[in-house]
């Protein structure tokens, strides 16, 4: 059966291997985009190639400045869920816009008409690849179409604020179609959870890559990522949208080494005044104007990108050695941060960082203006700069999985010693768990033999924010004696973050001690805040006191004669 033609026309296409440009007759059908070498082959239906409309999207393409002249050429790109990107040039601006609109409309129409083919029953979960503030993220397969996707499972049963944030994320992501922004596909309400189906990025987050490979990025890598991020932000800015949580953990790398912005859970539609007043984001990356709540515009993301440059170059953002609450006080009051070793980096990168980290938001350039920075004239593609690093991180990730799988199947887990003493006989058991990388201690008293099981966390593919994957382990120990005894078990997590403390079901005192420790730490922070507040308020209080005393003296001097004895 012959399909109806939605649009056809001559388009110049860039070759996939040799990058040569050849004219092709493109034909848009309801289910595919086919291209032919000439009209004769079109009449014979002898296709040179085709792009399935399912999962296809089109967007304008800005060609990098090169020695070649691109004047009078109207570039756009057609990219597919499989990762293939087609760079093409149309005959006019009107024709380019028409192609982009019709390709995107046809693709969306196809998805809606065939939505039942992508039902929950078709989803096959492969593995959990992360955990973030909003729940877990899993790698999954649509069995009917063989598409690999990422599914974020978010609990929605109690907190209305969380639902509101989720609805915001979904509404924004639905309308975002750009090569440097993670694609959103579908949502499913599953009783107490919402499933958000997104584009799968197998390279993981930049934060994850840096930590897995235990390295920082070089200048070429940083420049290529910044350019990709700026192109994504420029696209958002045209739609009066901002991200508000730019950081290495929210920049993902696809299997094809394309850098993409993700995690729009805190994104916002900028109001008519183009100012927001809510404090949302991650403290270390926050622009000063956001912390001060004086209102901020689209270039708030530019500050966060500047901090991300430092994060990529040095492994972490500035001020991470102090508590986030203290960082919030310091960011607006300290000078803008710079590289620890400025001479290590080119003048161009130092200047780019300086422009991003202008403390006055009015002096901070937009994403479009920054894309004109001279440093991007020598910018390489992320595929050129990241191919080896991503492959290395994938190998390390697989090794870690095998290592943890091996540990899971072994009869012992973690590291630690248990000692018991006393007299008597009997039996007892304890259960402990540890989170992150750190050490935890449990103490138990009992008699006879007991069983202890522990669990620990490992790093895995980043997906938006810092993520972990649980791997269970168990060990058994036995002993005999009489009376009562006590034992201490010390275990350490494997390549996690932070410190975890283990509890057992008999350890009420240990739990109380931990809560007391947390309370003390909180009180310490509150006292520090109060102390700083008092330091600022003391001069004001003194002035107020002096003024009141002066007023009191004046009042006394005016009325005292009436009551004085002669």
TrEMBL record:
SMART domains: PH, S_TKc. Residues 397-496 are annotated as: Disordered. Residues 397-409 have a biased composition (Basic residues). Transmembrane segments: none annotated. Residues 4-108 form the PH domain. Residues 123-376 form the Protein kinase domain. Keywords: ATP-binding, Kinase, Nucleotide-binding, Serine/threonine-protein kinase, Transferase. It is an enzyme of class 2 (transferase). ATP binds at residue 153. SUPFAM superfamilies: PH domain-like, Protein kinase-like (PK-like). PROSITE patterns: PH_DOMAIN, PROTEIN_KINASE_ATP, PROTEIN_KINASE_DOM. It comes from the Eukaryota. GO terms for molecular function: ATP binding; protein serine/threonine kinase activity. Pfam families: PH (PF00169), Pkinase (PF00069). Its EC number is 2.7.11.1. InterPro entries: Kinase-like_dom_sf (IPR011009), PH-like_dom_sf (IPR011993), PH_domain (IPR001849), Prot_kinase_dom (IPR000719), Protein_kinase_ATP_BS (IPR017441), Ser-Thr/Tyr_kinase_cat_dom (IPR001245), STE20/SPS1-PAK (IPR050629). Residues 410-455 have a biased composition (Low complexity). GO terms for cellular component: cytoplasm. This is non-specific serine/threonine protein kinase.
């Amino acid at each position: 059966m012959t399909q109806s033609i939605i649009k056809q026309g001559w388009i110049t296409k860039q070759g996939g291997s040799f990058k040569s440009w050849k004219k092709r007759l493109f034909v848009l059908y309801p289910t595919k985009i086919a291209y032919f070498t000439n009209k004769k082959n079109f009449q014979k239906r002898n296709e040179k190639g085709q792009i399935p409309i399912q999962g296809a999207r089109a967007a304008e393409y800005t060609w990098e400045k090169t020695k070649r002249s691109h004047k009078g050429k109207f570039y756009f790109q057609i990219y597919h869920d499989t990762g293939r990107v087609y760079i093409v040039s149309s005959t006019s601006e009107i024709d380019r816009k028409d192609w982009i609109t019709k390709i995107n409309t046809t693709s969306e129409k196809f998805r809606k008409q065939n939505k039942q083919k992508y039902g929950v029953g078709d989803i096959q979960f492969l593995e959990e690849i992360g955990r973030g503030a909003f729940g877990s993220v899993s790698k999954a397969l649509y069995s009917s179409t063989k598409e690999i996707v990422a599914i974020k499972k978010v609990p929605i049963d109690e907190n209305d604020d969380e639902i509101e944030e989720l609805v915001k994320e979904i509404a924004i992501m639905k309308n975002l179609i750009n090569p440097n922004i993670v694609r959103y596909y579908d949502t499913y309400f599953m009783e107490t959870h919402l499933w958000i189906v997104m584009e799968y990025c197998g390279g993981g987050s930049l934060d994850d890559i840096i930590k897995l490979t235990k390295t920082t990025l070089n200048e070429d890598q940083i420049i290529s990522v910044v350019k990709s991020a700026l192109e994504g932000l420029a696209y958002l800015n045209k739609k009066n949208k901002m991200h508000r949580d730019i950081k290495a953990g929210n920049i993902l790398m696809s299997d094809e080494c394309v850098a993409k912005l993700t995690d729009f859970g805190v994104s916002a539609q900028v109001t008519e005044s183009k100012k927001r007043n809510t404090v949302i984001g991650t403290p270390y990356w926050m622009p000063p104007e956001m912390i001060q709540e004086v209102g901020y515009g689209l270039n708030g993301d530019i500050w966060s990108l500047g901090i991300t440059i430092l994060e990529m170059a040095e492994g972490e953002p500035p001020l991470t050695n102090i508590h986030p609450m203290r960082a919030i006080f310091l960011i607006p009051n300290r000078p803008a941060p710079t590289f620890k070793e400025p001479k290590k980096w080119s003048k161009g990168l130092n200047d780019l960082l300086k422009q991003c980290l202008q403390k006055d938001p009015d002096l901070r350039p937009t994403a479009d203006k920054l894309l004109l920075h001279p440093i991007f004239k020598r910018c390489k593609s992320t595929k050129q700069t990241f191919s080896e690093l991503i492959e290395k991180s994938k190998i390390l990730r697989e090794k870690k999985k095998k290592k943890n799988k091996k540990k899971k199947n072994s009869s012992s887990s973690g590291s630690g010693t248990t000692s018991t003493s006393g007299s008597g006989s009997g039996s007892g058991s304890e259960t402990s768990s540890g989170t992150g990388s750190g050490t935890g201690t449990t103490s138990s008293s009992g008699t006879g033999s007991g069983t202890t099981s522990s669990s620990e966390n490992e790093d895995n593919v980043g997906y938006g924010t810092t993520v972990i994957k649980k791997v269970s382990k168990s060990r058994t120990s036995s002993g005999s004696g009489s009376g009562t005894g006590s034992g201490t078990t010390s275990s350490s997590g494997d390549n996690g973050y932070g410190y975890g403390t283990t509890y057992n079901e008999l350890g009420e005192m240990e739990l109380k001690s931990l809560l007391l420790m947390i309370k003390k730490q909180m009180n310490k922070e509150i006292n520090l805040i109060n102390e700083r507040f008092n330091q600022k308020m003391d001069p004001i209080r003194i002035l107020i006191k002096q003024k009141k005393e002066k007023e009191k003296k004046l009042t006394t001097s005016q009325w005292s004669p009436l009551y004085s004895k002669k």
